[in-house]
Amino acid sequence: MKYPGLVLFLILALPFAFAQQLMDITGTVMDQTQAVVPGAKVELQDATGKTVKATVSDPLGRFVVPEVLAGEYTLIVHLNGFQSQQQRVIVAEGKPIMASVELQAAGSSHVVNVVAEAAYSESQAYTATKTNIPLRDVPQAIEVVNSELIRSQAAVSMQDAVRNVSGVSVHMGEGRRDQILIRGFSAVNDYYVNGVRDDAPYYRDLSTLDRIEVLKGPAAVLYGRGSSGGIVNRVTKTPEAEQPLMGELTTMVGGYGMKRVSGDTGLSFLGGKAAVRLPGAWESSGSHRHDFYVDRFTFAPSLLWKISDNTKFVAQIDYLNDDRLPDRGIPSINGRPANIDIGSYYGYAPDDFLDNQAFSQWINLEHRMGTWLVRNNFRHTNYDSAYSNTYSNGILETGGETFVKRAQYNFSGTQRNYFNQTEAVKFTRIAGMNHTILMGAEYGWQDRDGIRFTGTAGNVALINPVLTRPNYSTTPATDNIFTGTVWAAYIQDQIDIAPKWKATVGARFDYYRQRLDDRRPANADLGRIDREVSPRVGLVYQPIKWASVYGSFSRSFQPSGEALSLATDNSELKPETTRNYEGGVKFETLGGRLTSTVSAFHLIRNNIKTTDPLDPTKLVLSGEQRTNGMELSFSGRVVRNLEIYGGYAWLDAKILKSNSLSSGVLIQGKRPGQVPLHSGSLWATYRFQNGFGFGTGVIYNADRFVANDDLVLLPGYTRVDATVSYRKSRYEIALNLRNVGNIKYYESAHANYNIYPGSPISGVLTTRVRW
Questions:
Q1: How far is the C-alpha of 561 from the C-alpha of 567, rounded, in Å?
Q2: Is CB count within 10 Å lower at the N or C end of the chain?
Q3: C-alpha to C-alpha distances, 130 to 127, 179, 494, 526, 741, nearest whole angstrom
Q4: 723 CB-side CA count, 13 A
Q5: Assign residue 765 a region: left if phi > 0, alpha if psi is -120 to 50, beta otherwise?
Q6: Rounded (5°) CA angle 357-360-365
Q7: What number of other Cβ atoms are within 10 A of residue 147's Cβ?
């Protein structure tokens, strides 16, 4: 076993597994006008009238009463000038509780609603506005994949998790990185962690995450460059205040030699003033693809220190090591994936490798001063990457036989990210309207230092190939260091215009300096500076409490150095721009247990770099691509014990203008690669009172082209998954089956000759113990 330390740590935690499972009570305090109420005291009393937990609502009116034993309690909320409110609360294992508290002036009646929270549904998200407002108040589509959904599906990769999100397509990413498309546009550089850019090309693990938030449409108003189709923000697991001993130990074994152990444990000390949390995982696995392997280890310890009632400090270290074989899949023949064994591999396993390491340090300091919330967010990450990749890149017919052409390249490099965000949130009332004003400044410094060699590899037979060793180059194809520096300032105002009307307006200014130092003597150094303003404006109308109608406009920019690289044909070109016009309706039905969003949008990217018709060696900014689309997403509890999560997307994507050729074909008028017209997913689980549960899931993708030339078509497919489980108190065992129909399908691609076949039927057996 390569990483016995983590396994030993988890085994030592087993004696604590006989402790009773504890649950959180979360909620929001509001006044009669539905404005949030900060500073309200929240107490939880047991049956004897003794206060067992106490907290204060934060500047957003939120509160958390953490880690409560099962039983019957009284929740009491009081604040000077308002009548104290109280409500009976029953806490049961496995059933989180959400309380919505409405404070009214002294002498008035009061309302306290307490409902069991749906397992897969989230009512709030941070990513869209950085203020954790209810999703119904966000004038933009956003979906949250939480840890409960991830666990129920036995998901272990980002691709597994984001397949749940409507409008998202999975991309192969050259077999060496997480890569998706959102609303028809690549989001390869649009990954974030706790609101900070995480744009290196590597595979991320899910064991250290609390949830994944996918914000759709341009997000440059708060996050800067990129984000044509949206962004993916990973929210990590961090300690909870006043948290007693807790933890979870999970083992997974499955088809193709899969073995995985993950754990999450935490403890508070210093009388609840400090806490630690220690999530991590180890995995070793194969695949339905010949020669494939993955060995990875991740660990993300964190510390919470409540310096005072108004000040808290969080620090986290996050380490990931991921070793695997890069896999570029199979080629196509005559416009379709080759009809061959789906495990056929055309690289060179003795030499090919992928070794990625990511090591980050995160420090967050937050302080409340009356109606002000001030915070500073700093993150440094060092990414080391090395790989050698041999792959198919064409087909050759000769002598009545079919051969696969192959190519090879190898790379080693380091990327460093330093980002610091300082933000202030002000809660105030102006001209009779409530305002939540966010002001922020960001400084970022990134460099990527790498050297790449392009070799050659001999042709091999399509059927039963005899794989030969590539010829490796000793002359660098690229050898440079890119440095990007960003200074940015942004402001946002969320306004309660009237009881049923809310507005969100904001803008960000970016100064982005890019420089490429080329170490090859024949090449000149390159550089440019871009200055861009990114606005967003949105309006929300809530005719009834459980429904919102919204409309919004947002804009983002994509500079030449967006991916930390420059070339002679783009270093003089100003950024491309993306605009999003969006409208929709959000619902909270069945007493708030079921949330859903229906959205329609027009997303268009202008000034796309395309070949200069007067000089094929140059680029001009005359390309244009758009997606007209509609999306439906929903999550929650339909009836008692029945949880669902799903969505559907219709994406009419088209390259409107382009002078560029792909495979000798003009791509103007073509449908962008990897974007199906129709796609959708559904996951539903039902749990009986005796602890048994079962569920099923469906993933659907219509036909889609591999690349922008529309020469190779991936056939549509419908994949069915299933699960059966048993949970008793702190213990759980589950069996997840994927592709129960054992259909043949193709889940992703990178290019016309790099197509990744989906797995046949396979299973994962999970055991879990909580304490």
A1: 9
A2: N
A3: 5, 24, 11, 35, 42
A4: 28
A5: beta
A6: 170
A7: 20
Residue 700 makes CB contacts below 8 A (sequence gap 6+) with 678, 679, 680, 681, 716, 717, 718, 719
Q: Tokens representing 759?
A: 């797995």
CB 357 within 8 A of CB 321: yes
Q: Who contacts 351 (Cβ-Cβ below 8 Å, separation ≥6)?
A: 388, 390, 469, 470
Residue 330's Cβ-side half-sphere holds a number of Cα atoms within 13 Å equal to: 27
- pLDDT, position 118: 72
User: Count of alpha carbons within 13 Å of 352, Cβ hemisphere only?
Assistant: 28
**In 3-state terms, what secondary structure has residue 690?**
coil
**Which residues is 488 bridged to in the sheet?**
442, 510
Q: Which two tokens stand for residue 593?
A: 């247990």
Q: CB–CB of 121/522 below 8 Å? A: no
Using DSSP's 3-state secondary structure scheme, residue 688 falls into coil
Strand order in the sheet with 111-116: 62-68, 23-30, 97-102, 111-116
In whole angstroms, what is the distance from residue 348 CA to residue 362 CA?
38
pLDDT of residue 112: 46
Token code pair at residue 763: 């299973």
Q: Which two tokens stand for residue 184?
A: 């028809």
CA distances from 5 to 1, 281, 285, 358, 768 (A): 10, 11, 18, 19, 19
Closest C-alpha to 194, from 156, 155, 231: 231
Assess contact for 175 and 159: CB atoms under 8 A.
Answer: no
Phi, psi (5° rounding) for residue 621? Answer: -95, 75
Report helix, strand or coil for 166. Answer: coil
**Phi and psi at residue 257, to the nearest 5°:** 75, 20
> What count of other Cβ atoms lies within 10 Å of the Cβ of residue 487?
14
Q: Please say whether the beta carbons of 413 and 383 come within 8 A.
A: no
pLDDT at 121: 87
Determine the Cα–Cα distance for residues 427 and 371; give it in Å rounded to an integer: 5
Give residue for tokens 């009214």. 104
Name the token pair of 193: 């962690």
* Exposed/middle/buried for residue 270 (C-beta within 10 Å: 0-12, 13-18, 19+): exposed
Token representation of residue 264 = 């999450």
Q: How far apart are the first and last CA of the chain?
A: 26
Task: Give me Rg for the CA atoms of the chain.
Answer: 26
Residue pair 723/146 in contact (Cβ under 8 Å)? The answer is no
> In whole angstroms, what separates CA 495 from the centre of its chain?
28
Report whether 588 contacts 548 (CB < 8 A): no
Phi, psi for residue 441 in degrees, rounded to 5: -140, 140
Question: For 294, what's the count of Cα atoms within 13 Å in the CB-facing half-sphere?
Answer: 28
Residue 12: per-residue pLDDT: 35
Residue-wise DSSP of 287-336: -SSTT--EEEEEE--EEEEEEETTEEEEEEEEEEEEEE-----B-EETTE
Q: CA–CA separation, 165 vs 148, rounded Å?
A: 15
The residues that bridge with 408 in the sheet, in sequence order, are 390, 455
Q: Which residue has the tokens 């080629």?
A: 331
CA–CA separation, 428 and 510 (whole Å): 27
Read off the tokens for 401: 């036989």
- From CA 628, how far away is CA 654, in angstroms rounded? 9
Alpha helices in 558-621 (DSSP H): none
Burial environment of residue 670 by CB neighbours within 10 A (0 to 12, 13 to 18, 19 or more): buried
Tokens standing for residue 28: 């929001």
All residue ranges of the chain with pLDDT < 50 are 1-20, 107-116
Query: What does each C-alpha distance from 292 to 171, 285, 295, 343, 457 come to in angstroms?
Result: 18, 8, 10, 9, 19
Q: What is the pTM of this model?
A: 0.86
Q: Say if CB 494 and CB 60 are below 8 A apart.
A: no
Q: In 3D, which of 709, 697, 730 has the Cα closest to residue 153?
A: 697
